[in-house]
Specification:
single chain, alpha+beta
């Protein structure tokens, strides 16, 4: 089983011994995208049918979730394959016109395999204020940088000009809060994108709650960089597998 850059030292010490059942069955890339949609929906990435995820394949095409289905209901067979311009070449559903944002980000960031855009509940609160949420706890520090803030809402992003503007604002960053329009999260693998996405929403939720109580003491930048630098680069061991197992237990048809 591929571990997508997981910390090999930790794996060698703590991975299940030979003979134990694997943490996950071998997953196709379509199954990984479907599971990512399902898992993130439970983490707050659940604005009805809004939101889109793309995974760049080795041949330059993309896998993406369909427009018509919520992230909480789709299965692996619903996942579309797109050409380099974002047109559907495999699948029975439609792709959102806003896929242009993903095409533009992938064009500018060859290090990125996964692009996530949605309007998560708590990230959207902070995007509406144009402020970056402080880091108040260890879980919020699993990624070592602040999100960039794109502070101009100019409408939906199906137009090339607007998709380009968001891609330019993201730059070389790992994530961005879009003024009045949710968040964009990117990663070099499904595992890394998952960790970044759930960390952003956790961080936004906790920061709002702490500040509602009058504020707290944010972690220092040095601590955040030391903590997140390791987990963001190498992955949080076994977390992705655990979240996938939960989803498969709830609804095994996600893999179909």
């Amino acid at each position: 089983m591929r571990h997508d850059g997981l910390n090999q030292e930790l794996l060698s010490r703590y991975a299940p011994r030979p003979g134990r059942k694997p943490l996950l069955p071998e997953l196709t890339e379509r199954q990984q995208v479907a599971l990512l949609c399902r898992v993130l929906s439970r983490e707050g990435y659940n604005d009805h049918i809004a939101g889109h995820i793309t995974l760049r394949l080795d041949d330059g095409t993309y896998l993406a979730n369909p427009w018509e289905l919520t992230w909480s209901e789709l299965t692996a067979s619903d996942i579309l394959r797109l050409d380099a311009k974002g047109h559907v070449i495999e699948g029975e559903w439609n792709i959102t016109p806003a896929i242009q944002l993903h095409v533009d980000v992938h064009d500018k960031r060859h290090d990125v395999r996964v692009v996530i855009h949605n309007h998560p509940e708590w990230s959207s609160v902070w995007s509406a204020t144009g402020k970056v949420p402080p880091v108040y706890d260890q879980t919020s520090a699993l990624v070592d940088t602040d999100p960039v803030v794109y502070d101009e809402y100019r409408g939906t992003v199906e137009q090339r000009e607007l998709g380009n503007a968001v891609a330019n604002a993201l730059g070389q960053n790992k994530w961005a809060l879009l003024a009045n329009h949710g968040a964009v999260v990117v990663g070099g693998s499904v595992r890394q994108a998952h960790l970044r996405a759930i960390t952003l929403e956790w961080r936004c939720r906790l920061a709002w709650r702490v500040q509602a109580l009058g504020g707290g003491n944010p972690l220092s930048q040095e601590v955040v960089q030391a903590t997140g630098g390791r987990t963001d680069l190498h992955g949080f061991p076994f977390l992705w597998e655990a979240m996938c197992r939960e989803e498969i237990r709830r609804d095994p048809t996600v893999l179909e």
